[in-house]
Each structure stands twice: as structure tokens, then as C-alpha cells.
Design brief:
By secondary structure, the chain is α+β, with helices and mostly antiparallel strands. 22% of the residues lie in helices and 37% in strands. Strands 1-3-4-5-2 form a five-stranded antiparallel β-sheet. A hairpin with a 5-residue loop joins strand 4 and strand 5. The longest helix is centred in the N-terminal third of the chain and has 16 residues. It is elongated and about 45 Å long. The protein starts with 5 loop residues before the first strand and ends in a 7-residue tail after the last helix.
Length: 139
């Protein structure tokens, strides 16, 4: 089976650019977060549901590869997918494409499951099953 890839698109806002109207490098990480959130909604749930169950997924690493600039008012697409899920951690991967459908940025974020009082925890079995299923459905 193929992995589930979620895509969301939007126009680059002026506030996300530098003086040259090029997207500032820090905004791609924010776009990764939007891609992750959209991925969960597209799969039938949300990160808010995960928090309501008493857990957080703390970011432990961010990797970004910048290959081509993106400009103000350009329409971009963020692709996100779950690359890896383990008992306590997960890795999301991303591609950001410009309006010509060229890959401009790639990256990964690594996450660790934590209780709301800050202790590392196992991902609850229902959530781990949801993460590792290839179906486009709610948990």
C-alpha cells in the first residue's frame, strides 16, 4: 500500500517574506506544522484530540533543506506524511512546492510523546494504531 500524503495549499503572505520578498527561512517550519495539522484532519482526527486524550507530541528535531526560494504571493503546496511511528516517537516528512510544482524545500520533524505533566510516555495504543494504518479514516 502507498503511504497517505496530505496536501494543503495557500498564498505566501507578505509578512512571511524578507526585504527581497523571499519567504524567510523560519516560516517553512511554521508551514511544516500546518502540513502536520492538515495531515491529521485529512485522516479524520486532529492534534487537539490527541491533547484532549492527555498527551503532547513535543518537537525534538527539525531538519530543513532549502533548494529554491519561494516569493510573496506565490501559491505554495505543503505535502506532509508520517515517515515513522515508534512506541514513543514519530517522524513527519515534508515537501514544499512552488506554483510551478517544483520542490523548493524538504524536511522532517521528530516528535516524542509526553504526558501533560512533561513525562515521556508511550503513544496510546489507539493512536499508534491510527498512525500506522494506511487507511484514510478516524481512529
Amino acid at each position: 500500500m502507498e503511504r497517505f500524503i496530505a496536501e494543503t495549499s495557500f498564498h505566501v503572505r507578505y509578512a512571511e517574506t524578507d526585504a527581497m520578498r523571499i519567504v524567510h527561512h523560519s516560516n517553512y517550519i511554521v508551514w511544516f506544522e500546518e502540513g502536520r495539522s492538515h495531515y491529521m484532519r485529512a485522516r479524520g482526527t486532529s492534534y487537539a484530540d490527541f491533547e484532549r486524550d492527555g498527551f503532547f507530541m513535543a518537537v525534538t528535531e527539525v531538519h530543513v533543506r532549502y533548494m529554491k526560494p519561494v516569493y510573496y504571493d506565490e501559491r505554495v503546496t505543503v505535502r506532509a506524511w508520517l515517515e515513522q511511528a515508534r512506541s514513543r516517537s514519530m517522524v513527519f516528512a515534508y515537501e514544499i512546492l512552488n506554483s510551478a510544482n517544483e520542490i523548493c524545500v524538504t524536511g522532517q520533524t521528530h516528535h516524542i510523546c509526553m504526558t501533560q505533566d512533561g513525562r515521556v510516555a508511550r503513544i496510546p495504543p489507539t493512536w499508534l494504531a491510527w498512525m500506522t494504518s494506511r487507511e484514510n479514516s478516524a481512529r
